[in-house]
């Protein structure tokens, strides 16, 4: 079992019965608490399995040690602190076919955080895009 | 010759941005903000008290060409899977019978939500003035049309390919009698399309979509798979691939009003009202569908809720906006209590009121009772014992002459309908955050189950005039009402709903109900 704090069953989720109820109803847990985490849900498909296994858990595994990927039957559940980024040019190279950021969006099922695209990169971040950070347009020569 | 505003805008845009050598989607998109059509005469069905900024951006930089290509690939994958491999392996008949019943509710109700979201996002298109923001809303209008069709299709698929079609194919005709319908219309219709446009966006996008679609459309697929249903993940995860843009639309609605003075006055109240409105229905109904409508359990509903609603939505969406004055919803404490207990309370009532439904329900087995007690200590004393008594009295057998509704009458536990949410509640026998509150207005009594709804009613009583089942059917006998409300199968006398999912079990008919002599009595009249 993973000990990463971002795991699906981490923290209170590892508890059961009365122990879970005690923490769930504890006074300090009756208000929303700010976190810098992001969650990404990827619908399983030929392309997404490659993104997860070959890129996020492969070549880029060391980029963000907080990243957790869980198999939840029909989808991959990903959680990380800060951000998760996928460069679709890399995916294209691995798949051996053109794969744009819009092809990637075909199987992105949910995002918790601020997700956006810029050129061929998909990013989900905890930053407040449009408030703290400006959303950029594509720069062309 | 005068040129049109749009042509002038295009000409001006070209003057600023020279024509690119190749035209990529995002190169086209960067011009969009220059298309500042004249919106002075914009009219919306409902205006907003907030001023939406005219420079709000759209996060995915989507243009029509890429949108259409993307959505067509989604549909090809989804319909290809359903019509080819899933039909070939007889997937619809591999679904556990209990889960087959849950999908009658989940997909039929979601269809209504998607249908109303078409109008909701159309209204938002009218309200916004930033071209990119309008573009985001416009994409959502088209998404919602797609989703409405998808939800209808999955019921069609289950009805055509699977088991016990009644309820998959004709659920909507029971909308007058089914006690879950009206609450669903409150969250999925009224909350999305009636009132201040930004408040509707908060209901639909910031709470409904960013918060509750994750359990409703994502987590549900895990329960579906665990119970042998591979159609629902195929369709629902495809629906959800559009929801991330809707969540972004909701966030950008907030971005667009963040610097408006009205936000500091009204936003937290609107957010709390929207959160309570949505949670009041989704929390108990989804929990009930997942836990009581499945044979194989994935995890306790309260954990699913804690993850997607409290930790992720509360922390990542709402918590992060704290520095812009967005506060944790004041009703969160009561919502958390509901997430632990309210679905158990609701199932007790749903089982008791089964003849008015359009789906079959079944009592927890001994194995399931153990699971409930392990995960919700105190469950057996409150609920388990009651189910044992009902089972012993033959509640599943049409020859028993026993409807669980009688138990509530015998034990002096009246069932009320909450005026605002339209959700039934039994204040003398519940563990969720429900307490009876009664107000009188123009000689008419109204029952409320919580202070949050009561407060909303006090500020806008005209919004909550929908008649409840007691007001509609006071003094009428149950079988008459079921027949009138189309709660019967194609033979004209067997009820669509049944109190068991046993394929070999006897099915209840109108005659079985009639001989019990159950009459609708409004408990408010006794007060």
Question: Secondary structure elements and their pairing?
Answer:
The complex is a heterodimer of chains A (141) and B (527).
Chain A: H1 17-24, E1 37-43, H2 46-59, E2 68-72, E3 75-81, E4 83-87, H3 88-95, H4 101-105, E5 108-112, E6 114-118, E7 121-125
Antiparallel strand pairs in A: 1-3, 1-5, 2-3, 4-7, 6-7
Helix pairs in contact in A: 2-3
Chain B: H1 5-16, H2 25-29, H3 64-88, H4 97-127, H5 131-161, H6 179-193, H7 197-226, H8 231-257, H9 261-292, H10 301-318, H11 332-352, H12 366-375, H13 379-392, H14 404-410, E1 416-417, E2 424-425, E3 437-441, E4 444-448, H15 451-459, H16 469-473, H17 478-484, H18 510-514
Antiparallel strand pairs in B: 1-2, 3-4
Describe the protein's architecture and organization.
The complex is a heterodimer of chains A (141) and B (527). Chain A is α+β, with helices and mostly antiparallel strands. Chain A contains four helices and seven strands, in the order αβαβββααβββ. Chain A has helices at 17-24, 46-59, 88-95, 101-105; strands at residues 37-43, 68-72, 75-81, 83-87, 108-112, 114-118, 121-125. Chain A has a four-stranded antiparallel beta sheet with strand order 2-3-1-5, with helices on one face. Chain A has a three-stranded antiparallel beta sheet with strand order 4-7-6. The model of chain A has no long low-confidence stretch (mean pLDDT 95). Chain B is an all-alpha fold and 527 residues long. Helix content of chain B is 58%, strand content 3%. Chain B has helices at 5-16, 25-29, 64-88, 97-127, 131-161, 179-193, 197-226, 231-257, 261-292, 301-318, 332-352, 366-375, 379-392, 404-410, 451-459, 469-473, 478-484, 510-514, and strands at 416-417, 424-425, 437-441, 444-448. In chain B, the strands form two sheets. Chain B has a two-stranded antiparallel sheet. The radius of gyration of chain B is 24 Å and the shape is globular. The interface between A and B is large, with 55 and 73 residues.
């Amino acid at each position: 079992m993973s000990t990463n704090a971002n795991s699906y069953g981490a923290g209170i989720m590892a508890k059961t019965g009365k122990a879970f109820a005690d923490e769930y109803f504890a006074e300090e847990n009756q208000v929303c608490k700010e976190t810098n985490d992001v969650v990404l849900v990827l619908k399983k498909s030929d392309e997404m399995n490659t993104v997860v296994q070959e890129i996020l858990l492969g070549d880029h595994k060391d980029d963000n040690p907080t990243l957790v990927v869980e198999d939840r039957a029909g989808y991959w559940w990903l959680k990380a602190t800060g951000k998760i980024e996928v460069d679709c040019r890399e995916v294209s190279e691995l798949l051996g076919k053109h794969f744009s950021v819009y092809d990637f969006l075909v199987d992105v099922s949910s995002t918790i955080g601020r997700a956006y695209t810029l050129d061929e990169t998909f990013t989900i971040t905890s930053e407040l895009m449009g408030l703290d950070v400006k959303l950029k347009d594509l720069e062309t020569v | 010759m005068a040129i049109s505003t749009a042509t002038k805008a295009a000409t001006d845009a070209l003057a600023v941005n020279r024509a690119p050598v190749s035209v990529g989607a995002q190169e086209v998109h960067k011009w969009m903000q220059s298309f500042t059509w004249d919106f002075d005469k914009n009219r919306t069905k409902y205006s907003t008290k907030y001023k939406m900024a005219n420079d709000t951006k759209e996060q995915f930089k989507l243009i029509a060409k890429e949108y259409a290509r993307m959505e067509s690939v989604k549909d090809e994958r989804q319909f290809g899977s359903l019509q080819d491999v899933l039909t070939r392996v007889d997937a619809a008949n591999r679904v556990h019978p209990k889960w087959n019943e849950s999908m009658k509710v989940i997909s039929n109700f979601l269809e209504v939500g998607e249908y109303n979201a078409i109008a909701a996002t159309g209204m938002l298109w009218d309200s916004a003035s930033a071209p990119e923001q309008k573009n985001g809303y416009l994409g959502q209008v088209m998404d919602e049309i797609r989703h409405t069709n998808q939800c209808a299709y999955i019921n069609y698929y289950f009805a055509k390919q699977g088991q016990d079609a009644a309820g998959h194919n004709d659920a909507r005709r029971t909308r007058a009698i089914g006690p879950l319908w009206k609450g669903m219309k409150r969250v999925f219709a009224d909350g999305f399309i009636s009132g201040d446009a930004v408040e509707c966006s908060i209901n639909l996008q910031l709470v409904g979509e960013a918060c509750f679609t994750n359990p409703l459309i994502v987590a549900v697929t895990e329960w579906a798979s665990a119970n042998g249903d591979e159609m629902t993940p195929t369709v629902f995860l495809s629906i959800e691939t559009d929801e991330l843009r809707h969540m972004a639309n909701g966030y950008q609605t907030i971005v667009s009003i963040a610097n408006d003075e009205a936000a500091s006055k009204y936003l937290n109240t609107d957010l709390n009202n929207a959160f309570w409105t949505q949670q009041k229905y989704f929390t108990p109904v989804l929990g009930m569908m997942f836990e009581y409508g499945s044979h194989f359990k994935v995890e306790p509903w309260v954990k699913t809720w804690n993850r997607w609603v409290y930790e992720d939505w509360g922390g990542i969406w709402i918590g992060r906006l704290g520095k812009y004055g967005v506060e944790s919803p004041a009703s969160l404490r009561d919502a958390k209590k509901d997430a632990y207990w309210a679905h158990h309370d609701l199932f007790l009532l749903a089982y008791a009121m089964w003849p008015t439904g359009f789906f079959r329900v079944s009592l927890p087995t001994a194995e399931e009772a153990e699971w409930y007690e392990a995960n919700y200590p105190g469950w057996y004393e409150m609920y388990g014992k009651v189910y044992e008594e009902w089972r012993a009295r033959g509640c599943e057998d049409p020859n028993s002459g026993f409807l669980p509704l009688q138990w509530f009458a015998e034990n002096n536990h009246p069932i009320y309908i909450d005026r605002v949410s339209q959700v039934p509640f039994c204040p003398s026998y519940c563990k969720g955050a429900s307490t009876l509150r009664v107000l009188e207005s123009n000689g008419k009594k109204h029952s409320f189950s919580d202070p949050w709804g009561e407060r909303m009613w006090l500020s806008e009583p005209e919004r909550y005039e929908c008649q409840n089942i007691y007001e509609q059917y006071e003094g009428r006998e149950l079988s008459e009402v079921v027949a009138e409300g189309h709660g019967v199968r194609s033979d004209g006398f067997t009820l669509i709903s049944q109190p068991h999912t046993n394929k070999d079990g006897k099915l209840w008919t109108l005659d079985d109900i009639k001989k019990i002599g159950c009459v609708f009595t409004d408990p408010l009249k006794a007060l």
